[in-house]
Design brief:
The structure holds 2 protein chains of 2 kinds.
Chain A: E1 5-9, H1 18-31, E2 36-40, H2 62-66, E3 76-80, H3 81-86, E4 99-101, H4 106-111, E5 115-118
Parallel strand pairs in A: 1-2, 1-5, 2-3, 3-4
Chain B: E1 4-9, H1 17-31, E2 35-41, H2 62-73, E3 77-80, H3 81-87, H4 92-97, E4 109-112, H5 115-123, E5 126-130
Parallel strand pairs in B: 1-2, 1-5, 2-3, 3-4
Helix pairs in contact in B: 1-2
The chains are: A alpha/beta, B alpha/beta.
Amino acid sequence: MSKKLLFVFRTPPYGNQLAREALDMALACAAFEQPVAIYFCGAGVWQLLPQQEPASIGQKNLGAALSALPMYDIEEIYVDAEALQSNGIATETLALDYRPMQREEFPALADQFDVVLNF
Amino acid sequence: MAMKFSILVLGSPYSAQSVQTALQFTDAALNAGHEIYRVFFYHDAVHCGTALSQPPQDSQSIPEAWQQLGVQHDLDLVICISSALKRGILDEKEADRYDKPAANLLPAMELSGLGQWVDACLSSDRVVSFGG
């Protein structure tokens, strides 16, 4: 049996462990053969920045961990385009393959999933 | 129509309001005749599993409130083991395994892995997450 799970990632990569633990949960669900998708919005878009170097603050690289998503068959990655723009993030530098979305598309997206988890 | 809910709790018991909200929601759902399939405590919410919380005189212990709700309704209260170990919430088995001076897990709670949450998602009609 399987259910489609949508993970909403809204928190930044560092400063709190929630982003890391949210990713661990998404990977665990995928490891248990559940179809998983991720929607980055709000401060979560900061997780997508390339060349993160958190060793100096005693943390493991979350950006590098995200690049493992395709290995877990997590390929449905959506990003709030407005959040990228309002945070001044240069999209050409982002390493992950993702589909940019407008906010008003989110309800229709969430509707496609059986479970929506918020982090 | 009675539904099966699973609850994901993410906040820390005395820092986040969301833990109290989760407690009240769970209680309300049970009183309305729904089933709580599992409560999964993840991230900082593993602190709900401590038997050592001593609140001030005029407050209730939130971990103790979960313990009581768990016993009263025979709930499956699961504390995520990977989040718990690093935060110092251990049962006897883990305390022995890692040679720690004490164990502190509440009796109605159980340490287990993320697989229990995956199972909860598959087995429940609705999943509700609180805080983070």
